[in-house]
Amino acid sequence: MKQTTNSIVMIRPVAFRMNEQTAVNNYYQKVLDGLLPSTVNAKAQQEFDTFVDKLRAVGVDVTVIEDTLEMDTPDSIFPNNWVSFHENGDVALYPMFAKNRRQERREDILDTLEEKGFEITNIMDYTSAEEDGIFLEGTGSLLLDRANGKAYCALSPRADEELFIEFCEDFDYAPVIFEAFQTVDGERKLIYHTNVMMCLGETFAVICADCIDDKKERKMVLDNLKADNKEVILITEAQVNNFAGNMLEIRGNDDKRYIVMSASAHQSLTSKQIEQLEKHAEILSSSLDTIEACGGGSARCMMAEVFLPRN
């Protein structure tokens, strides 16, 4: 199984704004005072388009889907939370915490991929769990080490343990389960998505170990990464707040590997961390300030990796 892909899906926003339904437990979101909604969306579109251009310039196969105004989907720019695409032709659909995010799941996106020659053989649909108030938000909640058959999950209101274990059984992953925290107004609160404090590359892992308050859990997670011969690159909670955990390794022309992140994540890294990362792949960064502030998500959240077979 490959850990990285050359193909991704990205959704271009039409009504991007701060989603009041996700702000209850995504403490990274901020209201940008004094900006009209249309201005916020225009800025987000500009950041999106520049980001896509940078990815395509190095040979990443980006399928851009235009969002529609029919549904009120302010977070549609983060497709990795509702869908994942797998090498065996499976597509997984995930239950979402915010009601207005459930409308992001669009069958026509799967049709577009099939038109491009990707093969979908089976849809694993976990979305009925929403009726019971149970959520697992795709590769935001679970980080897949596809090559080593492990899935990492920081439990939270958006990442249910039982459903995560069910996913691991269905897709044949060994579960690595822990809790990760951030300090909000002096209190330790659960981080809403695993992928803001951790990134898995082919030969490296970026992680904020300080977010894992339980020492045994922290050791267990780090031991798992080291057992798979990944170089562990530690980041701080301050860097997590700049979305330095929200990176993704993808491949461009000639299978060249890139570590994709936002400009704020890149700027927050020390020269030593940059040196560690650049041993593994070239860094590609793009400014996503508006998207990060209003959406509380960053570069990794914007890319749904496509591992489907292609005919």
Automatic annotation (TrEMBL):
Hydrolase keyword on record: yes
An example of a Pfam family matching this protein is DDAH_eukar
Which residue positions does the secretion signal occupy? Answer: none
| Any GO molecular function | hydrolase activity
Q: Which UniProt keywords apply?
A: Hydrolase
What is the protein named? Answer: Citrulline utilization hydrolase CtlX
Protein species of origin: Flavobacterium artemisiae
Q: What is the lineage of its organism?
A: Bacteria, Pseudomonadati, Bacteroidota, Flavobacteriia, Flavobacteriales
